[in-house]
Amino acid sequence: MTNYSDAINYLYALQKYGIELGLEKTEKILSRLGNPQRNFFSFHVSGTNGKGSVSAMIASIVMAHGFSVGLYTSPHIVSFTERIRVNNRQITETEVVDLTNEIKSRLQSVKDRIPEPTFFEFTTAMAFLYFSRNAVDWAVIEVGMGGRLDATNVIMPVVSAITVVDYDHEEFLGETLTDIATEEAGIIKRGIPTISAMQEKEAEEVICKTVAERASPFVIYGRDFSGTLRSSGIKGITFDYHDGTYTLTDLSTPLPGDHQLFNACVAVKAAMIALEGEMGDKKWKTGDLKKGLASTKWSGRLEIVSDNPLIMVDGAHNPGAATALSEFIKKQLSGYKIIFIIGIMSDKDVVGILKPLLPLASEIIFTAPDYGRAMPPERLAGLASAMGFPSKVANYAREAIEMAIKEALHPSLILITGSFYTIGEAMKILDERLILR
Fold first, then answer.
1. Of 294, 315, 339, which residue sits at a domain end?
2. Residue 143 is part of a domain; what is its CATH number?
């Protein structure tokens, strides 16, 4: 492969192998690459909602303490390079090409012993190799799906963190909250500290049972540590953090939404535990912790991407995330007429996503991103009609944005949501539109 386009096409073509949950192949791939995941300390973050935000906040806090930090997340919104970062700098396109060629070549010679990797297995190996080559001190690794059999679960982290467990990916993780929590709790390691957000009873029972079986030191939000919201707005939150030992006041993060209080407290606790461990001579400092939280960057979550007209994007891709978005709108955007642009994947709980959002809309435009799993906008409109909400249909995201802009009279806000694929396409279109002005 001589260029970035070739490399990306090769990586995306690996999606034909689908999603294979299991660790054996990933372990073989990493062994072939010299086990790069053993060359840095790591955090491992699972959960249904909030794990990307928690990962970004942990990385920013640890970076503020003077460490070199890798961050591996998924999915990306606009560019594949968003998935792999060192000190908040995305991997370059040239580096993607070089690593793709190298890993592909090294696996080619053992293809009789190691089957073709899936997209996520390959990119996980790429991230670990990149972090090792860049000599990071720490890496924050976000689980792709579930946890127990996720390709990232080959690491031995310093701290494991589990964000809110909710319904999503039931076809892979199970139909009940207990089933899903069992998969998410699969990242818990013997003797390794585990931190959990507040959970529903079924999920908490699974997590508590697992940490007991694996002798994992355990803290959970609401019992062992907590937060108090001081202020909340479209530019983030300010809060106080409390545990049995420390009270930290006037912390802030630029990630908006009241739900970020729980995510931020999980990130703070995770960083505290890790930096108080036997990982070097640096311990956490209040000033650095505040600085790291305040400088967190995390795109695509309640993010304002245009001021004229006012446009916000949010990846509310499951019912829990849609409910959080709904609560944010009611609290922070009550003075606006909301024009929704919604595109959703067909394998999601579509009605569960639409139910908390549609009653808040002054206008609804359904569309579909250019992705095979996208639900046709006509089907979305049919579901909305059955729920009692009229809507319009645009076959393409560009068409939907133009329709919404024509309707966006002051004080209106265009809110693009439903899938990260939808908001990714929209952000590309809006960037082009800005350049052409």
1. 294
2. 3.40.1190.10
Domain boundary among 252, 273, 294: 294
Mean pLDDT per 10-residue run, the chain (437 residues)? 92 78 90 97 96 97 97 95 98 98 94 90 97 98 93 97 87 85 97 97 97 98 98 96 95 97 97 78 86 96 91 94 96 95 95 97 96 93 98 96 89 94 93 57
Q: For the whole model, what pTM was predicted?
A: 0.94
Q: SS3 string of the chain?
A: CCCHHHHHHHHHHHHHHCCCCCCHHHHHHHHHCCCHHHHCEEEEEECCECHHHHHHHHHHHHHHCCCCEEEECCCCCCCHHHHEEECCEECCHHHHHHHHHHHHHHHHCCCCCCCCCCHHHHHHHHHHHHHHHCCCCEEEEECCCCCCCCHHHHCCCCEEEECECCCCCHHHHCCCHHHHHHHHHHHCCCCCCEEECCCCHHHHHHHHHHHHHCCCCEEEECCCEEEEEEEEECCEEEEEEEECCCEEEEEEECCCCCCHHHHHHHHHHHHHHHHCCCCCCCCCCHHHHHHHHHCCCCCCCCEEEEECCEEEEECCCCHHHHHHHHHHHHHHCCCCEEEEEECCECCCCHHHHHCCCHHHEEEEEECCCCCCCECCHHHHHHHHHHCCCCCEECCCHHHHHHHHHHHCCCCEEEEEECCHHHHHHHHHHHHHHHHHC
The boundaries of the domain holding residue 349 are 303-436
